[in-house]
Amino acid sequence: MRVRSVRTAAVLAAAAMTAAVAGCSSSSSSSPAASGPVKLAFWGWAPGYAQSVALWNKSHPDIQVSFDTTASGSKGGYTKMLTAVKAGNAPCLAQVGYETLPSFAAAGALQDVTRYASADKSQFAGWTWNQVTIDGQTYGAPVDTAPMALLYRKDLFTKYGITTPPTTWAQYAADAAKVHKADPSVYLGDFGNDAYNYAGLAWQAGAQWFGTSGNQWQVSMDSAANQKVASFWQGLESKGLLKNDPSYDPSLYSDMAKGTILSDVNAVWDTPVLASSVKSTSGDWAVAPMPVWNAADPQYGNDGGSATTVLKGCKDAQQATEFAMWMSTNAASLSNLIKVTGIYPAATSGLTNPALSAPDPFYGGQTIFDVFKSEMPDINTGWQWGPTMTQTSTDLGDGLGSVETGNAQLPGVLSTVQTKTVSELKQQGLSVSGG
């Protein structure tokens, strides 16, 4: 199933803001004098992007790109980008996650580059192209997808009698109890506060958050499928079987390095993050498929994926689009992004890139991308993001943090986020069914 584009409702909301944005002075990119190159500014946070930019600059003297590292989107990067667009001094290019792209479109912050991009559509998996296309308007190039897996300490699994990594969530729960009983200071996993990691768990279970019917948005964050996922994780949390370190916090990696936390269910891009964060345990880790709900019908989750977007006001949109497509499809760029950023390519040509077949020393010489490749056919590509994800993810992240401290229950958090999301959609002037 293919991801549907965000419908007319979001685009109508964008129209009012677009006019105001378009009236601002153009971005920091400027058309060249006859003797100089086009200069494009690019904001993002992913490791490895700067190296791909350097590769481009070596082979494209007439179009030079400068990469400026921002805070990650959820930690201030997106706010900085949107503020710059409104001020008329935004870069031409920006890293924007698929989950946030509809929000940028609704804010009138993206530039339609369909006429420059359409020729490259066939180079990408259909559902990833749909992630950068809204109501027929394309705003950039897909970079990657983010299948999830179980990253685990194989040496400590053996120590605690886990002969094979859990293949189902029922087995995961049993192993969590087994490990913690053997040593109450040790936990199979961590209950983090990252909303998008949790979204991947919901995605796996077919627990949609957003949908559209006609010109109306539908919000279903507290549906039966979502409550099933919430009840499972709340059950482990209530039994004290999960550690409560904040996601990507130094405390998390300290506990992983000490052997207090034995595994992490996370996306492909987390594999190099983990490797750089717990270097002392190199060789002790391995990657296994994400546990599933039904072994007879396995379904897996996706946590992330980004686009290289062209922001509103870019004077050199054609050249910006050319770079964006090159970064996502060029073999040398993809090799770099696979090795350094840990991407799983959105470009179909990238799926045969030799970097995907390279053994990884941190993971004991395992060819880890084989695991993610095996999962791809069983990821539901019909997941849809909504235009309020900046607000929704903040509310959910706050709620997850409250669950960690014992001040909230996850099923109730979802109901609260449901209500707040519906309210935000209505405040944006969007039509919502139910809620």
CATH superfamily membership of the largest domain:
Periplasmic binding protein-like II
Q: In terms of per-residue confidence, which ranges show pLDDT below 50 for 5 or more consecutive residues?
A: 1-34
First-to-last CA distance? 26 Å
Oligomeric state, counting identical vs distinct chains: single chain
Q: Provide a count of the helices.
A: 17
Q: Biggest sheet, in brief? A: 5 strands, mixed
Average pLDDT figure: 92
What proportion strand? 5-15%
Describe the structure.
By secondary structure, the protein is of the alpha/beta class. The chain has two domains: 194 residues, D-Maltodextrin-Binding Protein, domain 2 (3-Layer(aba) Sandwich); 206 residues, D-Maltodextrin-Binding Protein, domain 2. Helices cover 41% and strands 15% of the residues. It is built from 17 helices and 17 strands. It has a five-stranded mixed sheet with strand order 2-1-3-15-6. A hairpin with a 2-residue loop joins β10 and β11. The relative contact order is 0.19. The N terminus is likely disordered.
